């Protein structure tokens, strides 16, 4: 039987994008850690954090694309820029009150629902193995973070849910990308005037320290600029269902990062839940590998 090599096929070899996906997921988790490090101690206000994050990410991407693709025009769209802005700004506002792991759970829970719903409306079939894996992984996340001794603040949780919907839309837009670097760069450029307007209109008392700037730069250059361009290269090769399920690993990574960097406690529940999430993701990807070997 001839192997199907079309980009939308479930038969795409996992090895062709798995390593890039792992880098992207680590970058997503790093964003939660950078943001919490910056905001939990009051080293910077959320508007300034987001502005530096987007501006530094834009500069990095502009330099990168001119070095690698000097004659390529910027891609992207205003839809991409708008969804990127809403994701990044609401993300920062929510992390004023949410912990790294809880925030990542709410964020990527909303991402998952958004991508599955839009994928279904776009005609993607709901393969049983992917749905089962998604449910197993989601149960693991619930066991990890909910219920807890202190429930997440409702307003912050709702803001993070809105951020997750915006990121889900941004990821779905990326499925049509033919040049991930050019499109990511163009989206970042378009997000800047939106962020500038928000910074002028919504920012209260500006507070910036050197530590806050460093965390913002780490988020903008490494976790956002580099991470998102790689993610756009990955997401166009897989289904919306698989992209959503893969991102369920981010709350686990963010929680583990919180243990190491934010002194959050390590528990048996965290270890067990992490294993459940990873197992669910593996189940979701089984049909991808099996079909690829036909």
Describe this structure in words.
The protein is mostly helical. The protein has one domain. Helix content is 74%, strand content 0%. The chain has eleven helices and no strands. The chain has helices spanning 18-40, 46-68, 78-94, 100-121, 128-145, 154-174, 180-202, 210-235, 240-246, 249-261, 268-292. Helix 4 packs across helix 6. It is globular, with a radius of gyration of 18 Å.
Quick summary:
The protein is an all-alpha fold and 294 residues long. It has helices spanning 18-40, 46-68, 78-94, 100-121, 128-145, 154-174, 180-202, 210-235, 240-246, 249-261, 268-292.
- Please tell me how large the radius of gyration is: 18 Å
User: How far do the termini sit from each other?
Assistant: 7 Å
Tell me the strand percentage band.
under 5%
Quaternary organisation of the protein chains: single chain
**What does the overall shape look like?**
globular
Total of DSSP H or I helical runs spanning 4+ residues: 11
Helical content, roughly? over 70%
Biggest sheet architecture: none
Query: Which structural class best describes the helix and strand composition?
Result: mainly alpha
Low-confidence stretches: 1-12, 289-294
The secondary-structure element order is: HHHHHHHHHHH
How many independent structural domains? 1
Mean pLDDT: 82
User: Would you count the extended β strands for me?
Assistant: 0
